[in-house]
Specification:
Layout: H1 2-14, E1 28-29, E2 32-42, E3 52-62, E4 67-78, E5 88-100, E6 108-121, E7 130-141, E8 151-161, E9 167-180, E10 183-184, E11 240-243, H2 258-273, E12 279-284, H3 291-311, E13 319-323, H4 336-342, E14 344-349
Amino acid sequence: MMRWRALTSVIAASSLALAAQVAQAETVKHETEVSLLGTYIEPDSDRTDEYGSAVRGMFSIRMGKHWWVEPQFYTGVIETGVDGGTDYYQQGLGADLSYRLWESDSFTPYGSLGGGVSRNDVANNSASEFGGYANAALGLISSPFTQSGLRVRADARYVYDSYDDGFSDLHFSLGVTVPIGATRTRIVEKTTVIEKPVVVEKDFADSDKDGVVDGVDQCPNTLEGLEVNSVGCVETDKAQSVVLQGVTFEFNSDRLTANARDILIPAADALKGQPDLKVELAGHTDSVGSEAYNQQLSQRRADSVRNYLLDLGVDPDQLTAVGYGESKPIRSNDTEEGRERNRRVEFNVVSE
């Protein structure tokens, strides 16, 4: 019963980090972070049949895209079940080398190996207090859920302690991680509009701005950025591509935002105005997450765009949806700006 009470108290104390409503924060870039975790200890049966609890503090330093070095300490008590100050008082100071499967600004599993110096203060035991320890851990770090980049961290850790004849303990930890010196990057595109008075005669108006006046234009509402022929229709004998700027989705979803739906209405009008125009709707992602997941997400998003255009009355034979995942970046995925550019939907003309 006492064992389960200790486990419950450790989990309850650490779970305060989950009390806030989870919300996706802006991407937080950082090189260092601090973690504080509550730990439940399952001791070696040769040490005691009771339980233990501890606090673990970690300072993490990024060494590369996936690699981190984590100096750390822990201090705890392992119960012996005997009254009179006979419990194990245990401390450790060391470092781990940690590998995070995905980048640090997203949800990621991780594994780590490390070791250090341990101290065991045990009554009526003549063994040296100081020794060494080695440990291996598997864990998870959540995505940020506050503007400051606060995340939840949990791991299970095997610890070998050289004290006495050597003991093997299990540590189960849950707590929070806070970035140090974090910065946020937001891309702001500045557009300067210079208004000039222009007199346009009705016979020379060009409503869709494709370079062909309305009186001659046989394909009204042409999508901006595509080359047209002399009668204002998109050239279908050459490969052309245009990025549908502003077509975005809800976080980690294939659901179009309200703004994206508004932007796709002119695209639907352009397709209905030229029934022989066939296009490929190409979905692309950045490299955050696994390659297989990004491939599936890009396909779902391309399908979502196609389905919405069909709802607007576009002929199904005009549309093909293809997801390319992270395979065709147009910018480096090493920066937030590059990753934002790579998350896109393209409108590719299928040449005849």
